[in-house]
Amino acid sequence: MDLPELTAEIRAFAEARDWLPYHSPKNLVMAMSVEMAELLEHFQWLTPEQATAMAHDPVRRVPVEEEMADVLIYMLRLADVLGVDVEAAIRDKMAKNALKYPAP
Amino acid sequence: MDLPELTAEIRAFAEARDWLPYHSPKNLVMAMSVEMAELLEHFQWLTPEQATAMAHDPVRRVPVEEEMADVLIYMLRLADVLGVDVEAAIRDKMAKNALKYPAP
Amino acid sequence: MDLPELTAEIRAFAEARDWLPYHSPKNLVMAMSVEMAELLEHFQWLTPEQATAMAHDPVRRVPVEEEMADVLIYMLRLADVLGVDVEAAIRDKMAKNALKYPAP
Amino acid sequence: MDLPELTAEIRAFAEARDWLPYHSPKNLVMAMSVEMAELLEHFQWLTPEQATAMAHDPVRRVPVEEEMADVLIYMLRLADVLGVDVEAAIRDKMAKNALKYPAP
């Protein structure tokens, strides 16, 4: 599945559970922030070396991938609510970044 | 461009600026959290109605889309560093969510 | 107990558990961010009216107070590590804010 | 000034600028999260050693202290809105932590 298909699936999932009324942009951004912190939590007490090792450990990285997915699921839900094409948004921002941070 | 192409472009962008040494998983997650808060900031003082209206205003939503892109750029960078296929991670998490939250 | 006494107690608590080596400024700020998100989580799906009602409900507010305390405990730990007098820091920032946002 | 005096001053500051209507618990927690991320931002690309050195540099630490104060100002505003005694909340949480994490 590509992003538009995943976005439609995430919407259908929320709709089937009557969650859509909670999915205002403000609430979705808050919920996404909470998932982001759960991702952060995996790394908080690790040295940089331990963090890198943990993130590459096939077992211990599983919850890290799940938190990444949780952030992305809310991001796609927000993009759906706002009608944002995330791939286009990334491309546009990369073009701006290229002007802001010229390559040496 | 699809996600693998965007991921490669983001990596090349960082590489050309000698930023790769900073891109440990721990640092990338922190940087992504900061971008997430910049997205949150656009909504903090708005009523739910104002937040929804703002997010659909063609002019005022532009910085919101840019913050969404900033979060995603770091997410794709992190996924690249960790070797995570984000579309597969979302699909797997949706399957888990379906077990955790059965449809009524 | 006042803030200096609480700060000393928090340090002694961490010391007795051999946690001090983990309490670098970078790690403490990450840990505090995670506690902040746990505070945020209580409010994410509530309307402003529900959030206000919840926060004043004598039972449901208990975990909110605990998350506030968790943020503050890490803040006092960070202030201790950095040698910051938090009351003085607040006072100085309020003086700056008064210049930045003149009263009408 | 002690915390009750600072809390009263922060309330008067907001009142004089007609900000009180924006200070719902939900909004204050969001605003506090944003300030927390601004604190995090100072540390995101630093090694643990650089972060510690920066935080102790008398010049470079000034903005760090200001971000700490910004978080605390919103925390005291939230405590005021909710009628929370923050020193008591910290004390209570420390007592709970002592049960949860017994000293070795």
From TrEMBL, chains A, B, C, D:
GO MF term set? nucleoside triphosphate diphosphatase activity
Pfam families found in the cross-reference section: MazG-like
* GO BP: nucleoside triphosphate catabolic process
Q: Which InterPro entries match?
A: dCTP_Pyrophosphatase, DCTPP
Name the UniProt key words of this record, in alphabetical order: Hydrolase
Highest rank taxon of the organism? Bacteria
SUPFAM superfamilies recorded for this chain? all-alpha NTP pyrophosphatases
Name used for this protein in its record = Nucleotide pyrophosphohydrolase
